[in-house]
């Protein structure tokens, strides 16, 4: 199968490329290398085709989509810090850029998977979140929600194109996905903490650390995406993809210190010292993964311990 991955030099995209090459598919990547990196795909040199460019380039996207059987749309601007510092550019990439991909997949009648996010549920306090949970987002001046808004609009366009034009799309809502190659540079908590722990530096927790998350290893997420893509009954549908085992950020930091045998200590700082004005957080974010389990018999295999070990091993290298 010929697979086209937008954002294929990024964290999840590059792991998708690995899995596809391993099973004998051909892979073409389009990436503007904004948060992605040539390093993530260097080991695939000669095995994949790489185009450095932007998903807003209509002619290029149409050409690449025309030549493939499956599109995995992973390209996006993400990372809370990144979104808050480059708001308009991020909205444009995530909404306008995705519209280009959605329209081209519709035009050439291609199977498409789009990467959405648990952020679309916002700060809905009713946890765990299932696919029918409401969006509860803050006021527009709380800039962090623009990522959630752009992704929700992308989903709405995908959903509508499926209904009106038969677009063969499946929507994947990733919850906190972690693993080798994810960078802590844009505020991702697991690589940021592990990097600090490996250097015996202070681990900085924003607020009091009582906020909780559930982490999913990227290899589990990749398996979910590829199985959904191979299952035609998932067309027109949407699925949470997340891990199991809720943990507070304080527990996460403590566990990371233990498992990496670090001498780091934990420091707490207020959100106002970490983010520009307009930030607000959600206290919990827990996925309900009943639907994907029932539909494609998928379940995450990694525990938080194995996730930490895997990220620590890759950062040591
Ligand atoms: N990692 C997570 O926890 C998580 C959670 C929810 C949703 N997601 C979604 O999964 C997808 C992949 O995320 P990731 O974690 O691999 O992030 P990433 O930043 O590593 O990957 C995104 C890739 O898209 C590329 N890109 C950005 N804008 C582009 C543009 N305009 N044109 C071409 N390429 C562009 C970047 O260079 C990068 O390689 C994204 O859509 C993201 O919103 C990720």
- Helix-and-strand structural type: alpha/beta
Under CATH, the homologous superfamily of the domain at 2-179 and 216-243 and 286-300 reads NAD(P)-binding Rossmann-like Domain
Strand content: 15-25%
User: Biggest sheet: strands, sense, closure?
Assistant: 7 strands, parallel
Beginning-to-end CA distance, first to last residue: 33 Å
- Say which molecules are bound, naming each kind only once: nicotinamide-adenine-dinucleotide
How are the strands ordered across the major sheet? 3-2-1-4-5-6-11
Keywords:
single chain; 317 residues; 14 strands; binds nicotinamide-adenine-dinucleotide; 3-stranded mixed sheet; alpha/beta; 7-stranded parallel sheet; 17% strand; Rossmann fold
Give a quick rundown of the structure.
By secondary structure, this protein is of the alpha/beta class. It has helices at 11-22, 58-66, 80-85, 87-107, 145-165, 189-198, 218-229, 249-259, 271-274, 290-296, 304-316; strands at residues 2-6, 26-31, 49-52, 70-73, 111-117, 168-174, 177-178, 203-206, 212-213, 216-217, 238-241, 247-248, 266-269, 284-285.
């Amino acid at each position: 199968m010929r697979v086209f991955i937008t954002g294929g030099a990024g964290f999840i995209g590059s792991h998708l490329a690995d899995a596809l090459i391993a099973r004998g598919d051909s892979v073409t990547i389009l990436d503007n290398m904004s948060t992605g990196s040539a390093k993530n795909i260097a080991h695939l040199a000669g095995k994949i085709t790489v185009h450095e460019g932007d998903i807003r380039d209509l002619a290029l996207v149409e050409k690449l989509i025309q030549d493939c059987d499956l599109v995995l749309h992973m390209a996006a601007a993400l990372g809370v810090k990144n979104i808050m510092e480059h708001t308009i550019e991020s909205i444009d990439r995530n909404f306008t850029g995705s519209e280009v991909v959605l329209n081209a997949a519709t035009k050439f009648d291609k199977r498409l998977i789009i990467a959405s996010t648990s952020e679309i549920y916002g700060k809905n306090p009713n946890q765990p979140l299932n696919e029918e949970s409401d969006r509860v987002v803050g006021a527009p001046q709380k800039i962090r929600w623009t990522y959630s808004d752009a992704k929700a609009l992308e989903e709405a366009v995908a959903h509508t194109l499926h209904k009106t034009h038969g677009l063969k799309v499946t929507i994947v809502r990733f919850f906190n996905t972690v693993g080798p190659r994810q960078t802590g540079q844009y505020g991702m908590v697991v690589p940021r903490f592990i990097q600090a722990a490996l250097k015996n530096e202070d681990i900085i927790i924003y607020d009091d650390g009582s906020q909780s998350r559930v982490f999913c290893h990227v290899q589990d997420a990749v398996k979910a995406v590829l199985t959904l893509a191979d299952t035609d009954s998932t067309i027109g549908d949407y699925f949470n993809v997340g891990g199991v085992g809720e943990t507070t950020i304080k527990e996460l930091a403590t566990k990371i210190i233990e498992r990496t045998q670090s001498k780091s200590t934990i420091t707490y700082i207020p959100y106002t010292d970490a983010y520009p004005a307009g930030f607000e957080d959600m206290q919990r974010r827990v996925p309900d993964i009943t639907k994907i389990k029932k539909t494609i018999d998928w379940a995450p295999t990694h525990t938080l311990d194995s996730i930490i070990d895997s990220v620590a091993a890759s950062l040591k290298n």
